[in-house]
TrEMBL record:
It comes from the Bacteria. Pfam families: GrpB (PF04229). This is GrpB protein.
Length: 189
């Protein structure tokens, strides 16, 4: 069962770093490390989130996502991922499994989401990534919001994430409309 305090402690302090051109390289290297564990699922692994948007300040977290057929399939990766340094975290999701790996002596971390996504590859997170890349003015407004929230939320990552919700919902629906997709009403994950 989701526990805000446990998630807050597991996710750590909110810190925004300047853009790092190495973030896409870190993703590629990590995908290669995960390939033997995830098999063909690694072929679908996508880099998303702010570190996937060139020139955007972000938490130094490489967000990765891949589709799975079921949560049972995702659960089968618990032990291999744990052995690779990924800890499963209950962040309140019920259509995905969420894993976090930290890098010793660094602010860098990896978040791996294994999602039951019948609408892959038009998953909202991927649409948002592409929308931010295509609309730098939206990316800059998002960056400003993140900096403001990081200052206000400090060590409460779930509160920081909640603070971005309305902005992200609007941006996702703008991206969906631009592709003649229905707007999203069901944000439950």
């Amino acid at each position: 069962m989701y526990n805000h305090e446990h998630a807050r402690q597991a996710l750590g302090h909110v810190s925004i770093a300047p853009p790092d051109p190495c973030w896409p390289i870190y993703f590629s290297q990590e995908r290669d490390l995960l390939r033997p564990l995830l098999g063909s699922i690694a072929d679908e692994l996508q880099h998303y989130g702010s570190t996937a948007v060139a020139g955007l300040s972000a938490k130094p977290i490489i967000d990765m996502m891949a589709p799975v057929a079921s949560l049972t399939q995702a659960d089968a990766f618990d032990a291999p991922l744990d052995n690779a340094g990924y800890r499963r975290i209950d962040a309140g999701f019920f259509k995905r499994r969420f894993f976090r790996k930290t890098v010793a002596n660094s602010d860098l971390a990896y978040h791996l989401h294994l999602v039951v996504a019948p609408d892959w590859p038009i998953k909202n997170e991927l649409l948002l990534r592409d929308w931010l890349i295509q609309h730098p003015e939206v990316a800059r407004a998002y960056e400003a919001l993140k900096l403001e929230l990081a200052s206000a939320c400090g060590d409460d990552m779930p509160r920081y994430t909640d603070g971005k919700t309305s902005f992200l919902h609007k941006a996702v629906n703008d991206a969906r409309r631009s592709q003649n997709l229905p707007i999203e009403h069901d944000w439950a994950e």
